[in-house]
Amino acid sequence: MIPLQEGGRRRYIRELEAIFKFSHDKYAKYFAKTLGWYTSQRKLYIAMEYFPAGDLHSYALKHAPLLENECCQIAGQILSGLAAMHQEGFAHRDVKPHNILIHRSPQSVPPASWWVKLADFGMSKRLETGTSGSTRRNGTLLYMAPELFLSELSNGSLFDYPAVDMWALGVMTFFILTKSLPFQDLSSAIDYASDANRSFPAAALIDCKVSLNAQSFVNALMRRQPTERLDSRAALRHAWNQSWLPETQTAPPHNGSSASSSRRSSFDEGTDSSSGQANVSSQLYSKSWSHEYTDNTKSVPKRMPSWWSEDVDLRLLNAALSDDVTTARHLLESGVDLETATPADYADFLRVLFYMDERLVKLLVQTGANLEARDMVDDTPLCKAVGAGNLSLVRLLIEAGVNIEAKDMFGNTPLSEASSAGNDTMVKVLVEEGADIEAQDKTGKTPLCQAAYNGHVGTVKLLVSMGANLESMDRDGKTALFKASARGKEAVVKALVDEGANTETKSRGGRTPLLQAATEGHEGIVKLLVSKGANVDERDHHNATPLLKAAAAGNTAIVRYLLDRGADIETRDNFTYTPLLEAVEQGHEDTEWVWSRAAFNSSQERIRGYSKDPF
C-alpha cells in the first residue's frame, strides 16, 4: 500500500512504471510477480504473488547462519536482478533482506536450491541513462551508501544509484554471511567512508571463517568511492559468483585455528573416495553451524569449478592450475574429453586456462577446442579476453576464427565491452577486424552510446572517426548526446556537439539533451548546449520545459541562467504547473530566484490558493 498524498503520487507512478517493466515473464525468476492493483482516493494497493516463507531478514533471524554457498546463491540471484534493472535504466535504491522474498528455501530432502526474488519498487528510480540528479536519500539507513550523506563522495549533489545498489548488496551479503551488519550505526559508516586510513570492518567475516573470495566480493561492493565499486556486470564476473566452491585458503580466524574456512553447502553430496581423491562436492564439510570443519582438501587443487566431477579427468585441471603446459599438452593430445561437461561448464574450464597462461590458450586452439563455449553470463572466451584487456589473446582468438559478434546475456558484443571500458586500443583492433560498429545490446545501445554513457571521450572520438552514427538511438530513443548530457559527461557532450550531433533530437519521452541536463542539474552542459543553439523552451510529452525541471530540482544557477536566456517563466506543463508552483511543490519556496523575480507578484495569488495535491 502506498499513500497518494503529497509525494506519494509520484511514488505511485514510479512504482507502477517499474512493475510494468519487471512483471514481464522474462524477469519472473528475479522479481516478485505483480498480479494487479487498485486505488482508493488516497492509497494505491498492489497485489503480488504470495511468498509463504516470508522475507530473507525474518528467515535469517529465525534460523542458523547460512552456509557460504547458500549465501552465494542468494547474492548471485539478487545481483542478476539488479543487473537486469540497471541494464534497463532503473535502480532499486532499497536493497535489503526485508525486500528479498523467499520463493524456495532448501528444506526438502534432498535439499533444493535457494530461489529468492527482489521486491518493493517503491524506491526504484528510472535513471534515464544511469545517474540521477535527485538529492533525495531513499532506502534504509544501515544499508545506505555513504555518499548519500557525504557530498564529497558524490558528483556534486548527484548520486550514482547503481553504485548505491551495489553498496547495499554488499551490506546484505555481509549480513547473510555473518548475521550481523558491517556498521552498527550511521556514524560508523560515515567515519569509514570519510577516512581513507580506516580499514574495512572485516572482523565478523573472519570470525565466521568466510572465504577470501567472499570477503573480496563484499569489499569490492563496499568501496568508499562509488566509481571504484564493481558495477552489476563486473560483479557477476567476480570469482565468488562464477560457480566455484570456496577457496580452501582463507584469512586466519581470530582464534588462530588452521582449519579450512570454507563451508560445505547443504546441497552437496557425501564423501566419495573411490578414486583415491576427494570428490569436489565433499571437500569441505561442516557438521553444524558452530563452524567446526573437517579438512579433506589436501589432494585437490586450490580452486576448482563446482561442476567438476569424476567424469572429467582432474589431471588436466591440475595441470592448468599449476601452469604445467607440457602436461596439459600431453593430456589434450591424448584425447582427454572435456565435452562431458555442459557448454557453460566447459567455458568455465576455458576461463581457468585463459587467466593462467596464454600458452594454454594456444594449446587449446591447436587441439581444436570449442572456443565458442559460453559461461553462466553467456560470455564467450573472446568476450572474457576483451573484458580482461588481453589484446594479444584477443588477436589470437580472432585469428582462430571465433565469432567477433558473439553477444553476452545483456546483448553486448566484444566491441560493446571494449567501448564501455574505454579501451581505445581494443576498440581500434576490433573495428579493424570487422566488428559491427553499430551493434546494439538488448536495450538498443551501440558502442558509441556505451562509451558516451561512461564518459570515455577518447573512445567516443575514435568511434566517430571510424564511422559510428552520431544519431543512433536506443530503444528509448536516446542518442549518445542524450546519454552524455544525462550523466554529466561534459567533455563527451562537447566532443559530440563539435562533431555535429543534433542537440534537438528527442527521446521517446520527448526530452532533448538540454531538458535532461537541466533535470539532472548539469549546469555546465546546460550552458554548453544553449551556446550551441539548443531551444531553452523545448517541451517534453508532458509539456515540461528545462526551466520547469530545473525549478523542480531547486537548481538556482540553472534557473537563473535559463531566465537570462529568455526562458518563459509563466510556461505551464500538462498538470498546470508553472516553474514557481513546481518549486513550491518540491519544497524550494525559499530559493533565491523565486523571491527575486518580478514574476513573483503575478504568481502570488496562485501560491495563496495552491493545494499540495493539485490532482
TrEMBL record:
Please name the InterPro entries in this protein's record.
Answer: Ankyrin_rpt, Ankyrin_rpt-contain_sf, Kinase-like_dom_sf, Prot_kinase_dom, Ser/Thr_kinase_AS
Q: Which Pfam families match?
A: Ank_2, Pkinase
Q: Which keywords does this chain's UniProt record carry?
A: ANK repeat, Repeat
* Keyword Hydrolase belongs to the record: no
Quote the SMART domains the UniProt record gives.
Answer: ANK (SM00248), S_TKc (SM00220)
Could you tell me which CDD domains the record lists for this protein?
A: STKc_PknB_like
Compositional bias ranges of the Polar residues kind: 245-256
**Region feature (Disordered):** 245-280
Q: Is the keyword Repeat in the record?
A: yes
Any one Gene Ontology molecular-function term assigned to this protein's record: protein kinase activity
Q: Which residue range or ranges hold the Protein kinase domain?
A: 1-241
Start and end residues of the ANK repeats are 377-409, 410-442, 443-475, 476-508, 509-541, 542-574
PANTHER family, per database record: ANKYRIN REPEAT PROTEIN, GH09064P
Its protein name is: Protein kinase domain-containing protein
